[in-house]
Design brief:
The protein has 255 residues and is an alpha/beta fold. The chain has two domains: 2-155, Alpha/beta knot (3-Layer(aba) Sandwich), CATH 3.40.1280; 170-249, tRNA(m1g37)methyltransferase, domain 2 (Trp Operon Repressor, Chain A, Orthogonal Bundle), CATH 1.10.1270.20. It is 38% helix and 14% strand. It has ten helices and seven strands. The strands form two sheets. The protein has a five-stranded parallel β-sheet, with helices on both faces. A two-stranded antiparallel ribbon has the order 3-4. The longest helix has 19 residues, at 207-225. The mean pLDDT is 92. Bound molecules: 4-(1H-imidazol-5-yl)pyridine. 4-(1H-imidazol-5-yl)pyridine is lined by residues 89-91, 116-117, 134-136, 139-140, 142-143, 146.
């Protein structure tokens, strides 16, 4: 798949595409990313891309025409028979969740516009933007970090990127419930008192008991921190009888 990113700050994307576990997805071409400098499509003579808002007020608004030229150039370069969606990142968008990430990971890509909240001429959004996505209820200085979040989440779903296929199963699981706690060496910390020992069940070798413990921990944590996710899992029929029993007792399982 291919993502075309329209931004005034293409240099923000460099490090992410060449480092870390997701690098494999970009280097192998499984996820192709092409960066487009919006200023290259600016109005002459000074390549202007923004101007003051009609009606007054602070801040600048990205001009429709440079945006239209940029999207047209991307579409021509892609040469798709079926157009891919144009995505704008905005706190007013739909929440980006793992289900949405999965849809992008299975798709042909998208055109990602990195703009500012309250900073795009609405006529461009009305005419060209297919989807607005939010990465949370806070205001950033632009859409670059949300775009990186989407690219990262999509890249790590590509076959071979995480190495272990079981990690993906965990993904679809943790998209529904929060993840359980994890432990590694040493078994007991020299100092630290309570919580210094690894939960004994993890050392038991009883795989069914370990799986049940992890599920119960995930449930307990999710009830405590994100009851909305538990309600949704229940509504979608993703909880089993043992899950409901754990929830009914409402006590975090003993370590
Ligand atoms: C976009 C914030 C998506 C959260 C875009 C300023 C944004 C954002 N989610 N903030 N421009």
């Amino acid at each position: 798949m291919r993502f075309d990113v329209i931004t005034l700050f293409p240099e923000l994307f460099g490090p992410h595409l060449v480092h870390g576990v997701t690098r494999r997805a970009f280097e192998s071409g499984q996820v192709e990313v092409k960066l487009w400098q919006l200023r290259d499509f600016g109005d002459p003579p000074h390549a202007r891309v923004d101007d003051r808002p009609y009606g007054g007020g602070p801040g600048m608004v990205l001009l429709v025409e440079p945006l239209l030229r940029a999207v047209a150039a991307v579409r021509a370069d892609r040469g798709d028979a079926e157009p891919v969606p144009v995505v704008n990142f905005s706190p007013a968008g739909q929440p980006l969740d793992q289900a949405r990430v999965g849809e992008f990971a299975a798709g042909r890509g998208a055109i990602l516009l990195c703009a500012r909240y309250e900073g795009v001429d609405q006529r461009f959004i009305d005419a060209q933007v297919d989807l607005e996505l939010s990465v949370g209820d806070y205001v950033l200085s632009g859409g670059e970090i949300p775009a990186l979040a989407l690219l990262d989440a999509v890249a790590r779903l590509q076959p071979g990127v995480l190495g272990d296929a079981r990690s993906h199963q965990q993904d679809s699981f943790s998209a529904v419930l929060l993840d359980c706690p994890h432990y590694s060496r040493p078994e007991v910390l020299a100092e630290g008192g309570e919580g210094a020992a690894v939960p004994p069940v993890l050392l038991s070798g009883n795989h069914a008991a370990i799986e049940r413990w992890r599920r119960d921990q995930a449930l307990a944590l999710t009830v405590e921190r994100r009851p909305d996710l538990v309600a949704r899992a229940e509504a979608e029929g993703r909880l089993g009888a043992l899950d409901r029993a754990t929830l009914a007792s409402r006590k975090p399982p003993k370590l």
